């Protein structure tokens, strides 16, 4: 959970050009990408890690359903956002 909290703390208020909305895209410096160097969707990555970490110790059916859906959503949405941004921005950007 420490990793999840650090990812959220470092990325929640920063511009996210490849995520929902993409507000303040022009403020992102590609030479100083930081966490965006490893993942284009750090908040969704944190959600997927959160779900997998909580899935392991909670073995009953309700928790398995909840965390599988939550983690699956976080992973699937990343691909959908990439498709939408590729369509909107074009393949060169």
How many helices?
3
Largest sheet: none
Q: Could you spell the SSE succession in H and E letters?
A: HHH
Any idea what the radius of gyration is? 15 Å
Name the poorly predicted regions.
none
Please provide the count of β strands.
0
User: In percent, how much strand structure appears in the residues?
Assistant: under 5%
Task: Assign the structural class, choosing from mainly alpha, mainly beta, alpha/beta, alpha+beta, or little secondary structure.
Answer: mainly alpha
Overall morphology? flat
Ends distance: 33 Å
- Helix percent reads 55-70%
Mean pLDDT rating: 77
Q: What can you see in these coordinates?
A:
The chain is built from three helices and no strands. With 93 residues, the chain is an all-alpha fold. It has a domain at 53-88. Helix 1 (2-11) runs antiparallel to helix 2 (42-55) and helix 2 (42-55) runs antiparallel to helix 3 (61-89). The longest helix has 29 residues, at 61-89. It is flat, with a radius of gyration of 15 Å. The chain starts with a helix and ends with a helix.
């Amino acid at each position: 959970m420490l990793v999840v909290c650090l990812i959220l703390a470092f990325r929640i208020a920063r511009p996210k050009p490849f995520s929902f909305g993409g507000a303040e895209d022009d403020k992102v410096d590609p030479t100083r990408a930081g966490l965006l160097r490893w993942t284009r969707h750090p908040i969704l990555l944190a959600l997927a890690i959160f779900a997998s970490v909580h899935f392991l110790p909670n073995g009953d059916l309700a928790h398995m359903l909840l965390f599988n859906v939550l983690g699956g959503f976080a992973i699937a949405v990343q691909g959908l956002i990439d498709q939408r941004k590729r369509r909107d921005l074009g393949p060169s950007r």
